[in-house]
Here is the input.
Amino acid sequence: MRRKDREVSTMEDIIAIMEKCDVCQLAFWDQEYPYIVPLNFGFSYDGTDMELYFHGANAGKKMELISQNNKVGFEMDCSHTLITADEACEYTMEYESVCGNGTIELLEGEDKVKGLTFLMKQYSPNETFHFNEKHVNAVAVYKLKVNHITGKRLNRS
Here is the structure.
């Protein structure tokens, strides 16, 4: 990372940023150009492995691209505050962000419920959730095993 003064270097701090985010952008390889899509997400970290979870339709471009190449990039950001100045080039933005890459796979059976549970925990203070089997069967759930993750922030406070 070029700006070491903005690097977030501990997993504890990276997780704190992730807990504040509500959308994760996934980047898929799509022949000539990347295909990027914003998604709700959840995550788990067991002290060693970080996994991100997403849900979506049971068909479509994401599924097609994953079947061709399951290596993806991701980005999430939050805590945006515009910092103004007298001169335009002195403006800046406070932020916190997390970026990385990994491999993504489609989940089946009970693993889908596990993934959906992590998704719900990102947006709800509840610890347990009831899932309607019909709805679980109607949705695709993905797990992204993170290979590399970095965090960055600018906070002038």
Notes: Helices lie at 11-20, 61-68, 110-123, 133-138. The beta strands are 7-8, 24-30, 33-39, 42-45, 50-56, 71-83, 92-106, 140-154.
